[in-house]
Specification:
42% of the residues lie in helices and 19% in strands. With 395 residues, the chain is α+β, with helices and mostly antiparallel strands.
Length: 395
Amino acid sequence: MGTAAAASIVANDLPALASQRAQLARHTRDARLLANLRLDRSVQVRRAAWSVRLQGELPLSVYLVALNDSDATVRAHAMRRAPTKTVPVRHLARLLDDSMPEVRRAAAERLDVLAHLSVARLSALASDADPTTAALALRALEARMHTLSVRQVAALTRHPVGNVVALLLRYRGNELLPSRLDALLLDPRPEVMRAAALSVPAERLRSLVLAHPRHQPLWDAVRERVESRLSGPTEFTGNYGTSTLCQTDYAIVDGDPCVVLHVEGWQAYGSRVPARYRAASYLGGISGDGTGVWAVRVPSSVTTVRQALDAITPAAVLAARAAGRHVVRQGDLYAVETTRAQDNTAPTYIGRHHWDPETRTLSHPEHRTVVIDFPVRFYLQRPLPMRGSGRAFAD
């Protein structure tokens, strides 16, 4: 089509010719014609004209007309096309309050617009009804986490959107008061509780569980800490979906909260290899001897804390307990009472544990030193390795 014919179509803005003008808008490379079509009376034509990227810039008035257009699609296209050096950011930021989700989404896609917003405005935008807009605002807020003032941090801990509070805990959780962290551990929103569980000191979480042993959110927090220590399989994906870890049992054992996590399901290995049904179980908890969070893998048939403890405890230790002999545990090492003839009288390194027969002390870099005043033999726990097969030492 010649330039003169195209100009005549543009000049004739009759509704009957709207389809022709829209088709012309999609295919023309003439910047002047396209600029005129962006101001056409027909919504169909304006949509088509603004959907095309124009080489060069238009006057500010053209962008302002389009940003205030009655059609949401036109406003969204204009938001994506408007250059910051032509249109002030304050005009673009106004569309974050638009009633239509697609317009707010287009505004949130502009990094220059989000950079213009305050932390309070970004955190409010994170609660937007449109999930894409909320996610983009959350990402922009994440980039500013390290620059927040103490007052802003305190204000965000009370934000109604759980993802905002969880994001704050992830980056600035170590700066919160212990009382505030304790409150967030009991938050009903799972994402907040999960983030708080990973932020609160392990010893503090252990104390809370011992004080409130029937409060399920605290046990969920223990589970989150244990799960963060796992390096073995935690989910299986096959033709029937994805199976993830679940908590099958929990209990307080010798003053330490312990949980059992279990996962089972079909695991796909590709089109040439048939899927297999797999399972994995883990025992973990928070130790009161200063080592913090620990986790070991146990046989996949285990679903209770008692079964898991029996599975990793050597048979000689179980027999000694049944016979009423002294048994002292330091981490993954058991000191079992024996006869004087079998007493361990030589200095010994067992893993990272060190036995000094002269002072009768058992020491470890991460555990409290234990004094043993009876003839002793040592036995190591033998849990399953996190990956592969066979037995291995505990984490």
